[in-house]
Amino acid sequence: MRYKSFLAATLLGTSLMVAPGCQDDFAKTNTNQSAITKADVRYLFTQMLSEFEPSKYQQWFYNNLAYTLRWTQANVPDGGNTSSLNLMGAFEGSQSQVINVKLYAEEIKHVLSLMDENEKATYENINVLANPLLVYLGIFGTDMYGSIAYTEAGRGLHEEILTPAYQSQEELFPIWLDQLNETIDVLLADKPNQVKLDAQDFVYKGDTKLWAKFANSLKLKIAVRMLHVDKAKALAIAEEAVNNKAGIMSGLDDDFIYCKGSQEYHFGDDVLDGQSKGIGSKQLINFLVDNKDPRVRFIFQKNDFNSKVVQAFLDNKKELPPYIKEVAEIKDGKFEGWKAPGEPWVRYFGSPVQTSARENAEINNAYFNYDKFKLPTEDGGEKQYYPLARMNREMLQGQKDYTFPDAPGVSATIDDQDRAWYGLHYSSAEVALYLAELKLLGANLPGSAESYYQEGIRLSVQEYDKLASLNQIPYYSSVYDKEFEKTIKLEDGETDALLANEKYKLSGSTKEQLEKVYIQQYVHFLLFPNEQFVQVRRSGVPMKDSKVLAWENFTDDDANFQIPRRWTINTPLQSDLMYTIKKTAYEAQGFTTGTQDPATLNRERIWYDKGAPNFGEGPNF
């Protein structure tokens, strides 16, 4: 027991706090107890905050890019979708994230328990700041699994709880609401002599009012998830949050923007796997470009076909992709400019989602046959060019180089400046769009659905522009092709023009208005794939036959092509200490373990997903 405790404390990066029964032996074999330095709670908080990572490398590489973004019809791989699209292979779990943070939260509580009451009282604010982080990651952890270990999790070091109980979503949601309310009550109580975090808090710089607002706004994540299982409770949660003294997130300064430091690059390996992953779907990119939605420029990267590359294809008598040829002004073999809508919009094209698309020779050559997009080089080789818009890697990771496309033989110009990564984990736009949804469903809120909806779009555009600026993505404020290229930063009047588009106006029946709200959530969540999947799963939007943004059939017989609604769960081993707990939890939810059958994973739903529409069916309230 003593060795285990020492090892666990070492892994935590904290000083060992020894149980009374171990003190004598510890002193004999190590050093005097009084000589041990007490852990600094502020530093423990910073380490806890640095462990806050919903989507790690494996989450992006497997879960997001291989599954959820494809299942929501947001992304397509470079070779197109196949009939095995709905089959799960390797994937990353989503419960370790909350455990990683909870270990530090429990360590903070333990350190505080060793203090006298007067000293302990000065850390009340810091102590409750763990709550919103844990609630956020707890929601993330349960979205694809249902029941998880939470309350007793992370308590093995000091309490020796090695078999933490699993709790259902129905049990967890009230616990999380209580934790958020506790945080708000403590932070707004203006308690005296509180230890300040300042720069140790790299999100809100120790501003307790912003933390309280963040905690209060997280209630809306719970509310929208409860709409199909307890609508009255969901609406009541929203009404309480809006009227809470903490306030709700409503501007860019309230956003949970995350940057650990100047040399923090957000995992090193390339999650986009070169150019093969993260290509936007055709219907999504068309929707964004047709409506001149600036977010397409920040979330997706311009393709390689600038005027220099187009001219190189013409000079080599190489056929241009048809969609690029369609927007290029070409006369006598010379590129003369871009047709409407012009730069930068003409650099964004998506890929069809249908599993049969690559079986059509014409479609295959236009989108999937990358040999068609190569030009010969002077040394007898070939240079590859990419005609489609894929997710912007510098919005996902820092320290990424970008080579500006040009004709073969031209010396490469590379943007190789190392920059830290800035991420956004919770935003005022998300909050406003939730409020628009909840208002339409009957919540008694002070604003109109339209006002929340419009503000959500405005904030979403501004937030993505801010992230693009902070991450200094290619083309944000400068161009390479100086004659025919434009920057992508947000211009004055763009958001007003966006809101004037018919497909962005909140009009029609309640169901039609809900569809538009869900579409805006869908777009906003493009860099938050778990949230996007949850939104599509609970709303049925995008919906089939939509006049705004339609859900496409993956196959000709789409009714029998089932998309999983939860992750596969390994069958617990009898040698696992948690065997009985896990087995009981899975059986209580009616889950089949050890299966990858899409129909089973579609049929067996987590608690709050019960009653939600099938994919593409639209709202069913």
Helices, strands, pairings?
Elements: H1 2-12, H2 23-29, H3 41-50, H4 57-71, E1 75-76, H5 96-113, H6 117-121, H7 124-128, H8 130-142, E2 148-149, H9 156-159, E3 166-167, H10 169-187, H11 208-225, H12 231-243, E4 256-258, E5 279-280, H13 282-290, H14 295-299, H15 307-315, H16 322-327, E6 328-331, E7 334-338, H17 361-367, E8 374-376, E9 382-384, E10 402-403, E11 414-415, E12 423-426, H18 428-440, H19 449-471, H20 494-499, H21 510-524, H22 529-539, H23 579-588, H24 598-603
Antiparallel strand pairs: 1-5, 2-3, 4-12, 6-7, 8-9, 10-11
Helix pairs in contact: 3-5, 4-22, 5-8, 8-10, 8-11, 10-11, 11-12, 11-18, 18-19, 18-21, 21-22
Using the coordinates above, name the CATH class of the domain at 37-53 and 92-247 and 565-615: Mainly Alpha
Which structural class matches the secondary elements? mainly alpha
Taken as a percent bin, the fraction of beta residues is 5-15%
CATH topology heading of the domain at 37-53 and 92-247 and 565-615: Serine Threonine Protein Phosphatase 5, Tetratricopeptide repeat
Number of helices: 24
The coarse silhouette is: globular
Query: What radius of gyration results from the CA coordinates?
Result: 26 Å
Q: What would the average pLDDT be, to the nearest integer?
A: 93
Q: Count all strands and give the number.
A: 12
User: Low-confidence runs (pLDDT<50, min 5 residues)?
Assistant: 1-29
- Cα(first) to Cα(last) distance is 54 Å
Report the helical percentage.
40-55%
Query: How would you sum up the major sheet?
Result: 2 strands, antiparallel
CATH architectural type of the domain at 37-53 and 92-247 and 565-615: Alpha Horseshoe
Give the strand line-up of the largest sheet. Answer: 1-5
InterPro entries: SusD-like (IPR024302), SusD-like_2 (IPR041662), TPR-like_helical_dom_sf (IPR011990)
Protein name: SusD/RagB family nutrient-binding outer membrane lipoprotein
Pfam families: SusD-like (PF12741), SusD-like_2 (PF12771)
Signal peptide: 1-19
